Amino acid sequence: MQVRARAVNRFALAFRLPVIVWQGLFFLGPLFFMIAMSFFLVKNYRMEEAFELKNWARMLTRGYVWDSYWYTFGVAGLATLAATLIAFPAAFALAFRVSEAVRRWAIFLLIIPFFTSYLVRTFSWYVILAESGVINAGFGTVGLGPYTLLNTPIGTVVGYLTLTLPLVVILQTVALANIDRNLVQAARNLGCPPRRTLFAVIVPLAKAGLIIAALFCFILSFGDFVAPYYLGGSKPPTLPILIIDTTKSGQQWPRAAVVAVMMMLTLFAIAATSIWLAYRRRSSA
Amino acid sequence: MTEPLVTLSGVVKRFGDFTAVHRLDLEIGAGEFMAIMGPSGCGKTTTLRMIAGLDVPTEGEVRIGGRLMNEVPVHERDTPMVWQSLALFPFLNARENVEFGLRMRGVGAHERRRRAVEWLERLEIGAFAERNIDTLSGGQRQRVALARSLVTEPQILLLDEPLSALDAHLVIRMQGVLTRLQRELGITFVYVTHSQSEAFAMADRIAIMSEGRIEQIGQPREIYRTPASRFVAEFVGRNNILSGTSRGDAIETALGTFPTAGLPATGAPATLVVAADLVRIGRTPSDGAVPCTLISEEFVGATVTLFLEAVDGTELKVQIPERTLGELNAHAGGSFYLSWPADAGHVLAES
After folding, report:
1. A8 domain-assigned
2. Residue A198 falls within a domain, yes or no?
3. Do the bridges between strand B156-160 and strand B81-82 make them parallel or antiparallel, or are there none, so unpaired?
4. Which residues contact B100 (CB under 8 A, 6 or more apart)?
5. In this complex, is the C-beta atom of B153 within 8 Å of any C-beta atom belonging to chain A?
6. Is residue A216 part of a domain?
7. Chain A residues with CB inside 8 Å of B74's CB?
8. Which chain B residues in 20-79 lie under 8 Å from chain A, judged by CB atoms?
9. Which structural domain, as residue segments, surrounds residue A256?
10. First to last CA, chain B
11. Mean pLDDT of all residues belonging to chain A
């Protein structure tokens, strides 16, 4: 029995080893290196190993870094709010108003956008958002515009939504479709009008899934480079753009590492808070 | 029966091609404890859901207190239901679950809390008011579900197999709680179950359903002693069912001819039902007794059911007190003789 148990353990270890090695080599290793690098110095355009707080002191006291930080936080937050609100009616309809077969087809169709490169999908927005584009042509027929949509925060948010909206709809649909219908009927049976069931039972029951969907949207938007660069005009720069700019200007990899670590810490905090909110147990006496 | 509170007349419910309920007529009195009993798929839950408005009848009328309810939406009916799954809200604690109906009716927070706590205390779970639902035991959840349904002081309470998930000893306790509540409140209980013991223990009247139709409505004793159809005789109690031909004052069956009252005209087919607890069993032959071989026994505490086989293969059942089992010296394969008094037989009206 002993021998067999050990054999099984070895098998289990061998089974998990690739993931452990991969994550160690390509995630944890670089992460620690990046944290270490944020304390390195650059002299004559060459990086030197050191343990100095100069990069941190410099970046955390520069106004443009904080402007960029709060701007990124703001547009990513706006995209998260927009995605959540735009996705919800669609997810609600897919979860409650259509048959199982239609729901499966819809989820399949929502996956299709991921077949095409996000970069390509981003560029296609030029046709729609440009001053000579579809939207302004529409406004033009009623004597309005043209409005500047490209190279604005609106462009950035549109780009973020291109990346995240299908995913948010899918996650919300799954969350809503898994609700126990008896609970919705029970609410109505206890005097809850149909419209009121939305906030009285449906949203509370799907809470965890809705929060996880929003969390994914925020994480993807916060770290995205493509949308703010090509549709937002990188003014002001978001943190990913700031990282690129910092590495390009004078080989300041350590300072870029500071920004990257700031982003990592922010996402850890957001993810931890979201998961706490999603799965929080109510006080129990 | 007092004045009917709930009236179903000519009610039909179809789901696509499937007819769940066929032209059902049912009157349930104010303050009555009515059980609707039948095997799964017989339409009993659909009937309950039509009273609640969760299902809308395809044909026919549902009236509550004389008012036609067909078009009245669920949330305006005041027909709370205790669900088989209990359907407690997991995101609310016990007290907030009980408050839900009051909140929907716009009762103020202070008054809501007072009434919810009062009901939780009445059901002896006041100490668990602030607990999460998933930290409560099955019995405690059951009481929260009851409190949640009763806190709005409805005229009628619908119960859909509420005790089916509980342990046997808790079922007996909750039966006591339910009957006591129903007597104290004086409101109508409509109780759907497949369990004979639950229906017989609690209900004033029982409706037996099969394949979307009511087979019989009556008091428990009436249903138990005088089943109206072969289905009821097979579904309720432990009955011996013998088909035969009427000879006027006796019925001729494959096992012999038995004197019985209430038979149709001579020559007509008839079915004799003899409850297992009215059958006498002995080791010595007597006039008119049916010789049998003991196949098996089923022991359920104070009574034992013996399953026997007659010469022609007919299965017969006898229920005797457990304490008499010893003196009978019953063991599988043994020969016995079964008989019953002429007034123990019940002739089915149909067939």
Report:
1. no
2. yes
3. parallel
4. A187, A190, A192, A200, B89, B92, B148
5. no
6. yes
7. 185, 188-189
8. 52, 54, 73-76, 78-79
9. 62-279
10. 29
11. 92
Domain with residue A167: its CATH number is 1.10.3720.10
Q: In the predicted model, what is the mean pLDDT of residues A89-113?
A: 95
The predicted structure's pLDDT at residue A283 = 46
A99 and B CB contact within 8 Å: no
Query: Which residues in chain A have Cβ-Cβ distances shorter than 8 Å to B119?
Result: none
Nearest residue of A to residue B147, measured between CA atoms: A190
Q: Which of A263-277, B160-174, B287-301 ranks highest by mean pLDDT?
A: A263-277
| Mean pLDDT value across residues A251-259 | 93
Q: A242-280 in b/e burial notation, b at 16+ Cβ within 10 A?
A: bbeebbeeeebbbbbbbbbbbbeebeeebeeebeeeeee
At A127-148, the pLDDT tens digits run 999 988 999 999 999 988 788 9
Domain count, chain A: 1
| Domain-embedded: residue A178 | yes
DSSP codes joined into one string, chain A: -HHHHHHHHHHHHHHHHHHHHHHIIIIIHHHHHHHHHTT-EEETTEEE----SHHHHHHHH-HHHHHHHHHHHHHHHHHHHHHHHHHHHHHHHHHHTS-HHHHHHHHHHHHGGGGS-HHHHHHHHHHHHSTTSHHHHHHHHTT------TTSHHHHHHHHHHHHHHHHHHHHHHHHHTS-HHHHHHHHHTT--GGGHIIIIIHHHHHHHHHHHHHHHHHHHHT--HIIIIISTTSSPPHHHHHHHHHHTTT-HHHHHHHHHHHHHHHHHHHHHHHHHHHPPPP--
Torsion-angle region of A249 (φ positive above 0: left; ψ -120 to 50: alpha; else: beta): beta
pLDDT at B342: 86
> What is the per-residue pLDDT for A1?
46
Which residues of chain A have a CB within 8 Å of the CB of B89? 183, 186-187, 201, 204-205
- What is the rounded CA–CA span in Å between residue B39 and residue B105? 37
Whether residue A190 and residue B152 make contact (CB cut-off 8 A), yes or no, is: yes
What is the reported pLDDT for A4?
61
Nearest to A72, CA basis, from A157, A3, A135, A143: A157
Tokens read off for A8: 């099984």
Q: According to the model, what pLDDT value does residue B198 have?
A: 93
Query: What's the pTM value of the predicted model, to 2 decimals?
Result: 0.86
Amino acid at A14: A
